[in-house]
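1st attempt posting a full record on here, be nice pls
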Amino acid sequence: MAQVRRFSDQARRARAADRLMARAGGVADVVDRLVAVHATDPATVYLAIAARLADPAAPGDAVSAVEQELYARPARLTRMLAMRRTMFVVRRSFAPEVYAAAGRRVAVKLRGDLLAFLAEGGGWDAAWLDDVEAEVAAALTAHPESSGAQLSKLVPRLREQVVVARGKPYEATQNVASRIIRTMAAEGRIERCTPAGSWTSGQFRWALAEPLPEVPAVPARAALAEAWLRAYGPGTEADLKWWTGWTLGETRKALAAVGAEAVVLDDGATGYVLPGDAEAAEAAQAPAVRLLPALDPAAMGWRERGWFLPPDHEQLFDRTGNIGPTVWWGGQVIGGWAQRPDGTIAWRRLSPSHAAADAHVAAAANGLASTLDAARLTPRFRTPLERALSA
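the predicted structure (as tokens):
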């Protein structure tokens, strides 16, 4: 019986530096390496990609490059609701697999919730919803790239309102528009286009989407597991299960389908890599500094993250586990950063053993301030350290 190789934390950090921090030639190449980029906070997409472009961008260039890939026709990237019911940007050519592996069940759940919401709040049924959605599609055919507000003017029934939690202290009135549009987008029938504002805006215009090719769920999960292992391996069953939102059974079948090889991690847990990928690489001679945004894929790639986090890392997270802006030195987090009202970048090192990185971090902070130029960022999920540094 072949001996299971050990993969140390040091080797994992070296691999993370090589695969997740290395610069790539273009925007779509960066997304490929990361598999999927968190897009709940719109700024994360731009900053995560800009930090990894082969040629550090001049102010505005990175934003333009990302927008070109997202909004040109045909676009190479797309936004979609997928793993863990979270918004991601993925390469459009990989979107069918991502949808079949993780997005479809999200869409099914959203539609069920929407029908219950409409029935309870207004007595409307599936036939009523079908009619409204047909009107939305017709409106976007006649008026492509319309905002939600514009769609509500074009389709009056989107302005219907529902009372939720009636009779309770938190009773509220909600428009049906946002939930109908969100469900149609989750199903891939419409898609987000250019933002109704700057690149940091979370308000988008909408257009009809090209239908995604049908892909069976089982091979799609295998494809997604393979992509995750290539970028984030070694990782445990628990890591992959958490990242994808799959059941344990689905996770194990996907790992088996790609022939994942087991390795032993420093904490004794079993990790997995792609076949032939268990050889640990040596750390780079000169670790690179990266100032990465809140919810960056590198910080959100695993459920268990102690092997790359510094002491006192709790202040990097909000109460629900969302990570804020981070300072990386090679393949590990050594601190956090924030933008101040005057546009300067403040940062704090949390790792007492990495003072050698300070000058490099200061230079990177000045470069990020230049890249952001006049833009002002406030992460959607604020953390204790980000709040303290931005004050």
